[in-house]
Amino acid sequence: MRLFDTPLSALGVRDLDLWRDLARPLGRLTSPYLLPEFAQMVDDQRHDVRVIIAEENSAPVGYFAYHAPQGGIARPVGAPLSDYQGFAARPGFKVDETALLKVMGADVLVYDNWMGASLGKTRAQTRSSVIDLSEGFDAWMAHKEESQRKHFKKLRQRHRKAEREFGPVRVVFGDPLGDRFDKLRTWKSRQYQETGLLDLFDVSWIDGVIRNCAARSFGPFRGLVASLYLGDELAAVEMGMVAGDIYHSWIPAYDPRFSAVSPGLLLLQGLLEAAPGMGVTRIDLGGGDLPYKAAYADYEVTLNGGRAMTPSLAMAGLLAWDSAEAAARLLPGPLSKAPLKLRRRWAQTAAAEPVLSRRVRRMGEAFLKAPQRLTA
User: Fold this and answer.
1) Helix (H) or strand (E) holding 346
2) Burial (Cβ within 10 Å: 0-12, 13-18, ≥19) of residue 216
3) Strand locations in the chain (E)
4) Is the pLDDT of residue 370 over 60?
């Protein structure tokens, strides 16, 4: 296997079409995140996206988009936004991590949601929950009424409560004025700030990627803004991506005033009912162990978090963090997790902010909110 590195902007129509084909093994798209369109949206904002092309017998067998290394460390395209990472490649594809790092000009590749054979050391694992509507919504709902009767009984009760207290429940798709996205942004930013997390919308390139995706309402790769109204009040908004037959849930938020009626779940139910009519037969809820996902998921996709490394200063720095985390486990209470939370915050900040001075400023802000994070 031969590996070639090139700026994303240098790829021609032939490579982009082959990339799209490889993102659809057996004719079925794996995830919108593995398409060139996602990489292009990110590169429009950051201008540092490169692509590894893997070839066998002079024919491409895999494409991997990533950000040019900073301080010897490379990350998959879109991190920390990308819920799926890795090669768009033929089934069974494997790559030698040492050769990959050499061609990338990187000492370390850090990844969070790697699809396929992972590289180097796997440090964490998550599962992306997927809803399968291939037999239609009615058939799916009939099955769930049997297997998850308690959950959907409660959801119907909340639906009735919402109508009694606030008015008719309705779901609206699209956002021609952009005002629903703006409300989503306001709610989500407030949530980040109240919990002491990095406000992703305060990072200019991330805000640009999400905003431009939300405005991309037509074509084979598009954003979808779905909004829940209770009476005349906007109660919840979700923005996701649609490609092929997949809708990938991305950024959800709701007005806390309506939390008693579970507006996020009422919105998801509206999405489920409308999905087949939009040509969507799979809804990917993303990774994480939120309890509600168990009631909806029909299967899960395993995604790995880890890193591939070669001996270097960057590797030494990461191993020093590992040692600090191991030593801190002997400390009492919340202090035992302090290095782990600090490292996670630094990793997210480093992925979001390619400029060192901005990373330092963000970490300074995080320290001011450390009590929130340590007790979270």
Assistant:
1) helix 338-352
2) middle
3) 2-7, 49-56, 59-70, 73-76, 88-89, 108-114, 121-132, 169-173, 221-230, 233-243, 246-254, 282-284, 299-309
4) no
CA atoms within 13 A on the CB side of 216: 19
What is the tally of structural domains in the chain? 3
Compute the distance between CA of residue 45 and CA of residue 207 in angstroms, rounded to an integer: 9
Q: Which residues of 279-290 are buried (b: 16+ CB within 10 A; e: fewer)?
A: ebbbbbbbbeee
Q: Are residues 42 and 103 in the same domain?
A: yes
Tens-place pLDDT, residues 62-106: 999 999 999 999 999 999 999 999 999 998 899 999 999 999 999
Question: What is the longest distance spanned by two Cα atoms in the chain?
Answer: 66
- Give the HSE-up count for residue 184: Cα atoms under 13 Å, Cβ half-sphere: 25
Range of the domain at 337: 314-374
Which pLDDT belongs to residue 376? Answer: 47
Identify whether 109 is part of a domain. Answer: yes
Are 44 and 205 in contact, with CB atoms under 8 Å apart?
no
pTM equals: 0.91
